[in-house]
Each structure stands twice: as C-alpha cells, then as structure tokens.
Design a protein that fits this description.
Blueprint (H helix, E strand, L loop, with lengths): L4 E3 L5 E3 L9 H24 L2 H15 L2 H22 L6 E2 H10 L20 H19 L4 H16 L7 H5 L24 H14 L13 E4 L2 E2 L7 E6 L2 E5 L79 H13 L14
Antiparallel strand pairs: 1-2, 3-5, 4-7, 6-7
C-alpha cells in the first residue's frame, strides 16, 4: 500500500508508515550513548584523582573483561595461599588445649571419602653426604615427634614428611621440609625450633626411629594416612584443623590432608631435589634459649654438617683425604709442640732398651 502523504503549512511531507519513526530513533539513541560515554569519561577523570575510587573502577573494568574460568582459578589460588599461611603461622595459637582440645578434636568428623595411598618413594642415587643427611633428618623427626608412638605412628609421621616433599606447597627435600621455618617461632615441626634436640636420644628408641626412616626411604608406604600433609597431637586443637580434611588418628596424633583437589595424588607432582642440608643447632630458633645453656657434657643430637663444597674440589664425596669429615663427629686437633717430643720418646722407649756399646780393648 502506498502511504498517504500529508503536506503541512511549511510544505513538508510526512509519510504515515511504520519505518518513518525509526528514522528519528537513532538520533535519540546516539545522544544517550554519547551522554553515557561522557559520564564514564568524567568518572574515570575523577577516579584518577582518588586512589580508592580508582582501584574500584579498575577492579570493575577488569572484572567485566575477565574470563570467568581464570577468575575462578585466581580465587582458588588466593584461598589456598591463605590456608597455607594459616597452617604455617597459626600453630602457636591453638583454639584449645588439654582435655578441652581432646573433646573437641573427637567431635571433628573423619572424612568418609576413600583414603588414597601415596606412591612409594625410593631414595635416588645421590652422594653419601646427602643421603646421610636425609636419613638423619628423617630419623630426628620420627624420634622427636613420635618416639613413644607405635611403629604405625612413627611410619605415619615419616609419610607426612614424604608427602610434603612431593607437594608444591613445601620444600622438595626431606631436610628442607623438616626444618622449614626453624629459624623463627612457629616452625612446621616443633622439635626443630623449641630446643628439644638438647635432650640426648634414648638409644633403643633412636635405633627404632632410624629403622622406620630407612624403610620409608626404601619405598614403605603408610597407607592408613593416605596423602596426609598435617598432623597434631590430640591434646591441642589448631585453628586450621576444621579447614582441612581429617583422615585418621593413630595413637595421640590426628592426621589431615589438604581439602579438594589439592589433597589428591595428582597434586603431589614435585620432583625430589636431592640437596639435603641440616642447619647448625645454633641457627635454629630454640624457644628463646641459647645453645650455650646446655648442661656441661650434655649431648646435642644434631650431627655435624659438611661445609659447603669448594667448586674447585673434584674429589669424590667418599674421599676425605685432607678434609675433616664433620659428619662423623671429628674435630681438628693440632698437637701441642711442647709435648710432641715427650710423646715420641715415650713411644720409642717401648721398642726396647738400646744395647750398650761394647767396651773397647784397653779401656
């Protein structure tokens, strides 16, 4: 149908058709768009002079343009980082202690999910010094953390250490895991910074701890604690305990793993670094007490550590010629020159009396 034309006084023609109004609509929309852009530009200029508002605007813009999947990953990383910080720094401020802690720990539910066992760890071929340090570190941890626990309890402590060593949240050496944070209050394993190592170990318990450590480094897996990375005594309730997944209690120790995918076997992907180092006792945080406070003659159960290797020294690790092997407890000993001759004379006198010269004729 041909639209009817109306001629007004000004001679303008108007067509009464559906598309006639659409010709005028874009002009209004354009004005609104321009007005919006002007207001947005004004907001940005104002925000530039206000730090707090600038951060809000920036966050809004980034949030508008962000990929939802990437945003979710970033939020997960932040949550994990907060949880790591809590489990590392909150250990000195428990939520409860004593009988109250025992009762409240019993109320924390044990996970009903299947317990997934860790993969066996076999100590790779490394230097004698490194392997000796790893063995000693693990023995120390087992002894000072669980000397009076059952063999299963000792093996569970060793399993936690090996699990941590494989997890990206922790150092990737055995000694590194055990001594993490030992130079400050709140270390990961209390014996490493509270002065416990001043107590000489009980020989029988130390030997058994060493046997459990050797088994753990030779592939033994304590399946009952699965992928556990945390434990604590039942008479203490850390504030982080309800935020982790409770797995098992063995003796006085309660074991936990990270929640969600971070506590699954595929998350334990770090390779063993093999650079084992035992810090000197004087370098440890010792609960406010100095190493010199030890009683005279009291043994300190921290073995010596070989000094840093000279880059120009190309000898094998088992070649100790010309060097002091402090891992065996040897110390430099320079003889007193004023006593050397007396010692020599004493040794030679034990070889028999020198025969007197025969008398000469005519004497």
């Amino acid at each position: 149908m041909i639209p009817e034309l109306h001629i007004g006084q000004g001679g303008a023609a108007r067509a009464d058709a559906p598309w006639a109004e659409d010709r005028r609509a874009p002009s209004k929309s354009l004005k609104l768009v321009l007005l919006g852009l002007a207001l947005f530009a004004a907001a940005i200029l104002f925000a530039a002079s206000n730090d707090r508002l600038s951060r809000l605007v920036q966050g809004a813009v980034e949030g508008w343009n962000a990929d939802p999947a990437e945003t979710a990953k970033a939020a997960k990383k932040q949550a994990i980082a907060r949880l790591i910080t809590e489990t590392e720094s909150d250990s000195l401020v428990p939520a409860a202690e004593g009988a109250d802690a025992v009762a409240r720990n019993a109320l924390l539910p044990v996970s009903t999910l299947p317990v997934e066992a860790a993969r066996p760890f076999l100590m790779p071929a490394i230097s004698l010094v490194q392997s000796t340090n790893a063995q000693r570190c693990l023995t120390q941890a087992i002894y000072y953390e669980a000397a009076t626990e059952s063999d299963a309890g000792k093996a569970a402590v060793a399993q936690v250490i090996l699990n941590r060593m494989k997890h990206p949240a922790y150092p990737n050496t055995i000694c590194g895991v055990i001594y993490q944070g030992s130079s400050r209050p709140g270390c990961q394993f209390s014996f490493a910074c509270d002065g416990s190592m001043r107590r000489p170990p009980v020989p029988t318990l130390w030997r058994r701890s060493a046997e459990v450590a050797r088994a753990a480094l030779s592939g033994h897996v304590e399946a009952s604690v699965g992928m556990a990375t945390h434990y604590h005594a039942n008479y203490v309730l850390p504030r982080w305990a309800p935020k982790l997944t409770k797995i098992e209690q063995i003796g006085a120790h309660i074991f936990y793993r990270w929640p969600g995918s971070w506590g699954k076997p595929r998350a334990f992907s770090d390779a063993y670094a093999g650079s084992e180092y035992i810090p000197a006792f004087s370098q440890l945080y010792q609960g406010g007490a100095a190493a010199t406070d030890a009683l005279p003659g009291e043994a300190i159960a921290v073995g010596g550590v070989a000094p840093p290797r000279d880059p120009t020294d190309h000898r094998a690790d088992n070649d100790i010629g010309g060097r002091i092997d402090v891992t065996k407890g040897w110390v430099p000993n320079i003889p007193d020159p004023t006593r050397s001759k007396a010692r020599f004379d004493s040794l030679t006198s034990q070889q028999g009396v020198v025969a007197a010269p025969e008398a000469q004729p005519g004497t």
